[in-house]
Amino acid sequence: MLDKSHKHVSCATCQARKKSLFSANFDENLSHLEEHKSCSYFKKNQPLFIEGSFPRGVYCLNQGKVKVFARGDEGKEQIIHIAKEGEIIGFRAMFSGDMYKVSATALEDANICFISKDDFLDMIDTNPTLRNGIMRELSKELGDRAVFITNMAQKSVRERLAAALIILDDVYSGEQINLTREDLANFVGTATETLIRLLKDLKEEGVIDIHTRKLEIIDKDKLMKIAGGR
């Protein structure tokens, strides 16, 4: 359970930092990071930033999960990423100087640290480890985005759902996947009604189990075969 009364998180004791770009190799700069960040409690469905706004800085997830999404012409969401503890969100738009082309909203109650644009760019200039990590992250994102576009264009909805559940199993670290049917449909790129029908099919096949809203993966090997089109 997230402690709503305690927003500040020390970088030295932050467990999520070990999974982030501010990992152990950043230890010598911890005091600088500590001085130039602020921590805030975000309620479920509270936005971090919205499409069309200018980037003010970056957000580092200490606890909780965030969906990153774009809206189509009719206002329907397409979720392109679900961020978990340790991830840094919002730095990509700073390098282009453009407005955000996506939005980010808390999927659940979350504790998130914020670093201003100027302070973050200064850290990149003075810390080669952070700079190299950012470059690797951007390169990885290009590859992930190519796979995402290919999946959306070439895979069936059933295959996309299986691939999405595999991704979410990693995001939730093997725990039950706690996502609304609407958000899951927006992640897969399908109608909610179609998603519900396909989830029922996967349950009947013994691939997943459904606990009200939460989903439990029972047979990951079979799920991977479905995702691969087999």
Can you give keywords for this protein?
230 residues, alpha+beta, Jelly Rolls, Arc Repressor Mutant, subunit A, 2 domains, 4-stranded antiparallel beta sheet
In short:
This protein has 230 residues and is α+β, with helices and mostly antiparallel strands. The chain has helices at residues 30-35, 92-96, 117-126, 128-154, 157-171, 181-188, 192-204, 220-227; strands at residues 37-42, 47-49, 57-63, 66-71, 77-83, 88-89, 103-106, 110-116, 208-211, 214-217.
Overview of this structure, please?
The chain is α+β, with helices and mostly antiparallel strands and 230 residues long. The chain has two domains: 16-151, Sandwich (Jelly Rolls); 155-227, Winged helix-like DNA-binding domain superfamily/Winged helix DNA-binding domain (Arc Repressor Mutant, subunit A, Orthogonal Bundle). Helix content is 40%, strand content 22%. The protein contains eight helices and ten strands. It has a four-stranded antiparallel β-sheet. The termini are far apart.
The name of the CATH architecture of the largest domain is Sandwich
The CATH H-level superfamily of the largest domain is Jelly Rolls
Number of strands: 10
- Largest β-sheet summary: 4 strands, antiparallel
Give the helix proportion (percent range): 40-55%
Shape: globular
How many structural domains does the protein architecture include?
A: 2
Task: Trace the largest sheet across and list its strands.
Answer: 1-8-3-6
Strand proportion: 15-25%
CATH class of the largest domain: Mainly Beta
CATH structural fold name of the largest domain: Jelly Rolls
- Averaged pLDDT: 88
Distance between the termini: 40 Å
* Unreliable stretches: none
Helix and strand content put the structural class at alpha+beta
